[in-house]
Write a structure and sequence with these properties.
Length: about 725
C-alpha cells in the first residue's frame, strides 16, 4: 500500500538564504549559494527515500524578482516522491543576502504556521540549517512544542576569529557581516536544540566549544554524504566536454590541474592560493591552476564583497604574470561539477581547499569519490576526511609556502598519487553516503520523539490544525452562569479537533489563570490578556507570543504617559499587580474625570501615543497604539492562517468593542454593558437573546460557525 503523508515522519528542513531549486542549483553564484544549498537538497531527497519518512518540506524564502530565475518564485517544487521545496513569502520580494534577513524572521515563522495549516499536519521535527534558520526553527518549535534540530554549517565565532587573524578589524567585520546578530542567533539555536547535527568531532570539540551553552551532550556527529551516482572516478577514454571551458585559458592544457572550486568569498582565501602558485616555480612547472569560482556576467555587476575578491584575484594573476597557466571560467553549471573533478583526476591533478575555516567541506568528499587527491585547510571537516580517506594533506591556510609545498608533494609522486586516489574512492564509498547519514539521522529523530510530547497533544498546536478559532471574553461573557458554561464547554470539547479555543480579557495573566481554575475551565489554546496587550499560548508551560510583543512596542513610552496623566483629575493608578509592561491601568471617578476624549487629546498634545480604553464605566487602560483585543485577534488570524470568516469573538463590555469590530464574526451576549449598544445593527455582529455562555452558543448557531468538515478540505498541500 502506498505511504501517505500521515503514515510516517513529517520533517521540516529550514534553509532560508541563498537560491534553492531542485534542478541545476546555481552553486557559487554568490557567498550564499555554496555547499549548504547542495547539502539540504541532497538531505531532503535522501530522507524522502527512507521507509519511515512520509513527507519532507525544505522551507526557504520565496523571491519574486527579474534578477533571479522565475522558479525561485514558485511556492512549491516537488524534488522527490515525498519531498518538496516550500518557498514562503517573507521580507521584500527581491533577493537578499543572509546578513539582511534578520528583521524578517518573525514573518517567516508566521508563514510557516500558515503552511502547516495547508498541509493539514504539524511536523514531527523542525531542523534549522545555519544561524538564521536555526533561530527560525527555534521559534516555531517554541510555539508548537516540537523537537528542534540544528546544523550550523559554519559558525560566527569561528569566522570572526579567522577574519581577525587575517587582519580585519572588529568594526569592519561587524559592519560587513552583522556578526554579533549571527552569534546571538547561534546561541539561541544551540540553547533550544534537542539535537545538534555536526559533521566532525573537531567541529564539536573546537568550534562549538567557543559557545558557552550546554549543548555539548546533545551533539551528534553524523557526516554528510555524497551522491555516488554523480561523483565517480573517470573511465578510460572518457571525453570531457567541460574541458573546452578550461583549456582556452592554458598554454599547456594537458598538465595536471590544481583545481579550486569555491565561491568568491574572502573566507575562501583565494589570495593565498594564487600567491602560493605564483611564488613556487616548481609548482608552476608541474601544473596549471584552475579557479572555478561561480558564475558571473561581469565583475562590475557583482556585489561589492565578491567584486573585491575577483579584483584581488586578477591583481595577483597579473602580479605573478600567470597568464597561460591559470584558468578562471566565467560560468559553470551544476552538472559540470562532477565532470570537473573527473577531468582533474584524469589529468592526475589535485583538489585544493585553502579556506580560512571549513566546518566540513562537502567538495572534499566529492573530490575523493571522483578519485582526486586533496590538499585542504587544517581545520574542521578536512581533518576528519583526510583521517578517514587517507587521500591527501592538511596545511595551514595562511602559510603560502607550506601550501605550495603540499601541492608539489601530492603532484610529484605518481605512485603515491594513485594510492591516494584509490583510498579516497574507498573512503567516500564506505563512510560518506547519504543512505548511511539518513539511517543515523532517522534513528536519532525517533529517539527524540519517544522522549518528547507529540505536537498534536499540545493545545497550541490546534491553532495550526483547526478549521476555526473561537475567542471569548471572560467576565460576564464566558462566566456568570455555571450551567450555561457547562453547555458551552461541552460544545467546545465535542469540536476540539476543528475549533481552537481562546479567551480575551482585561485581566492580567495571573488573575486570568486564577479565574479559569475557579470556574473549572480547561486551559484554552490561546490567552489574550491585559486588554489585548499580551498573547500567550498553552503548552505544558505558557509561551509568550514574541512577535506580538515586537509588533506593539512602537512609540510606547510608559513613563511619559504616567507623567502626562499625573495631574488629570478623577483617575488614580490601579495597584501594581494590574500594571503590565504594555498596560497602564487606572480607576475612574466618572463624576470628576474629564472623559476619554480629553485624555486622548492631552496625550496627543504631549507628542505621545496610546490606545485609550474606557470600560465598565470605571476602568481606564492605556495600551500601545497598536495594541488592543481587536488587533490581537487580527494578529492571531494572520499568524495562524485563519480568514476572519473562520474566527468568532464574543464579549459584553466596552473593552470588547474593538474585538467585536475586528472583522471577525461577533457575538454580544444579552447581559452586555450599555457601552456596546451602538454596535446594534452592525453587519457580522449578532446580539444574542441569551446571557453569558449560553449567548455564545446561540451566536455560534446564528453565524453557522462550523460548516461540514469537507467544506475546508481543499487546502491540503501535497499527497493526501
Amino acid at each position: 500500500m502506498e505511504k501517505t503523508q500521515h503514515d510516517g515522519l513529517y520533517i521540516a528542513l529550514i534553509s532560508l538564504h541563498g537560491l534553492i531549486r531542485g534542478e541545476n542549483p546555481e552553486l557559487g553564484r554568490d557567498a550564499d549559494t555554496g555547499g549548504q544549498v547542495q547539502y539540504v537538497l541532497d538531505l531532503s531527497r535522501a530522507l524522502a527515500e527512507h521507509p519511515d519518512v512520509a513527507r519532507v518540506d525544505l522551507m526557504t524564502r520565496q523571491i519574486l524578482s527579474t534578477n533571479v530565475g522565475y522558479e525561485y518564485g514558485e511556492p512549491l517544487e516537488q524534488i522527490a516522491d515525498r519531498a518538496w521545496i516550500v518557498r514562503l513569502p517573507f521580507g521584500p520580494h527581491r533577493y537578499l543576502y543572509k546578513e539582511n534577513l534578520w528583521p524578517y524572521l518573525p514573518h517567516f515563522v508566521d508563514q510557516a504556521l500558515v503552511h502547516f495549516r495547508g498541509v493539514g499536519r504539524i511536523p514531527d521535527v523542525v531542523h534549522g540549517h545555519y544561524a538564521d534558520a536555526g533561530e527560525g526553527a527555534s521559534r516555531i518549535a517554541r510555539l508548537l512544542d516540537l523537537p528542534v534540530v540544528f546544523t550550523g554549517h559554519s559558525l560566527g565565532r569561528v569566522k570572526e576569529q579567522r577574519l581577525l587573524d587575517k587582519g580585519l578589524s572588529a568594526e569592519v567585520i561587524e559592519e560587513r557581516y552583522h556578526i554579533s546578530r549571527r552569534i546571538e542567533a547561534e546561541e539561541i539555536a544551540l540553547d533550544r536544540a534537542d539535537l545538534v547535527v555536526t559533521s566532525t568531532i573537531q567541529e564539536v570539540e573546537e568550534q562549538y566549544a567557543m559557545y558557552r551553552t550546554g549543548a555539548r551532550k546533545r551533539m551528534a556527529v553524523i557526516p554528510p554524504g555524497v551522491d555516488l551516482s554523480r561523483f565517480r572516478p573517470p573511465r578510460r577514454g572518457e571525453r570531457f566536454e567541460v574541458a573546452s571551458k578550461i583549456d582556452r585559458f592554458l598554454q599547456k592544457p594537458k598538465k595536471p590541474m590544481v583545481l579550486a572550486l569555491q565561491r568568491p568569498d574572502e573566507r575562501k582565501n583565494l589570495e593565498t592560493l594564487i600567491q602560493a602558485f605564483g611564488e613556487s616555480e616548481t609548482l608552476r612547472d608541474l601544473a596549471n591552476l584552475v579557479l572555478v569560482i561561480g558564475t558571473r556576467d561581469n565583475v562590475e555587476s557583482m556585489p561589492k564583497a565578491q567584486r573585491t575578491v575577483l579584483q584581488q584575484m586578477l591583481h595577483k594573476i597579473d602580479r605573478y604574470d600567470l597568464y597561460g597557466s591559470v584558468a578562471y571560467p566565467k560560468e559553470h553549471a551544476s552538472d559540470d561539477v562532477p565532470v570537473l573533478y573527473r577531468l582533474a583526476a584524469a589529468r592526475h591533478g589535485v583538489f585544493v581547499n585553502p579556506a580560512l575555516t571549513e566546518p566540513f567541506g562537502l567538495t572534499l568528499i566529492e573530490a575523493a569519490a571522483s578519485g582526486l587527491p586533496i590538499v585542504a585547510t587544517n581545520d574542521g571537516g578536512p581533518q576528519e576526511i583526510v583521517r578517514i580517506c587517507e587521500n591527501g594533506l592538511l596545511v595551514d591556510p595562511l602559510d603560502a609556502d607550506a601550501l605550495a609545498a603540499s601541492l608539489v608533494e601530492v603532484l610529484s609522486d605518481r605512485q603515491q598519487w594513485r594510492r591516494r586516489a584509490r583510498s579516497g574512492v574507498r573512503g567516500a564509498d564506505r563512510h560518506f553516503s547519504w543512505k548511511g547519514h539518513v539511517a543515523q539521522y532517522v534513528k536519532r529523530i525517533k529517539g527524540l520523539l519517544r522522549r518528547h510530547r507529540r505536537a498534536a497533544e499540545v493545545p497550541s498546536a490546534r491553532l495550526a490544525l483547526a478549521d476555526r478559532l473561537l475567542v471569548c471574553d471572560i467576565d460576564n461573557t464566558l462566566i456568570g452562569d455555571r450551567e450555561a458554561l457547562a453547555e458551552f464547554l461541552e460544545w467546545v470539547e465535542a469540536h476540539r479537533e476543528r475549533v481552537a479555543f481562546g479567551v480575551a480579557t482585561g485581566r492580567v495573566l495571573e488573575r486570568t489563570l486564577d479565574v479559569l481554575e475557579e470556574w473549572e475551565i480547561p486551559r484554552p489554546d490561546v490567552l489574550i490578556t491585559a486588554v489585548g496587550s499580551e498573547i500567550h499560548y498553552s503548552r505544558p508551560e505558557l509561551v509568550t507570543d514574541l512577535s506580538w510583543t515586537q509588533a506593539i512596542e512602537y512609540r510606547w513610552d510608559p513613563k511619559g504617559l504616567r507623567d502626562c496623566l499625573a495631574e488629570v483629575p478623577g483617575i488614580r493608578l490601579q495597584p501594581g499587580g494590574d500594571q503590565r509592561q504594555f498596560k497602564i491601568s487606572y480607576f475612574v471617578d466618572r463624576e470628576s474625570w474629564p472623559g476619554t476624549r480629553q485624555v486622548r487629546r492631552l496625550i496627543r498634545d504631549r507628542g505621545l501615543a496610546a490606545n485609550v480604553i474606557f470600560s465598565h464605566h470605571e476602568f481606564l487602560d492605556l495600551l500601545p497604539v497598536r495594541a488592543s483585543k481587536g488587533r490581537a485577534i487580527r494578529h492571531l488570524a494572520a499568524r495562524w492562517g485563519f480568514s476572519l470568516d473562520q474566527v468568532l469573538v464574543a464579549g459584553d463590555s466596552g473593552n470588547d468593542a474593538d474585538m467585536l469590530r475586528s472583522g471577525a464574526l461577533g457575538v454580544v451576549v444579552r447581559n452586555h454593558s450599555s457601552e456596546l449598544r451602538y454596535l446594534q445593527g452592525r453587519e457580522r455582529i449578532f446580539f444574542a437573546g441569551n446571557s453569558y455562555a449560553r449567548g455564545i452558543v446561540e451566536g455560534i448557531q446564528h453565524h453557522e460557525f462550523l460548516p461540514p468538515a469537507s467544506a475546508d478540505s481543499s487546502h491540503l498541500i501535497g499527497p493526501e
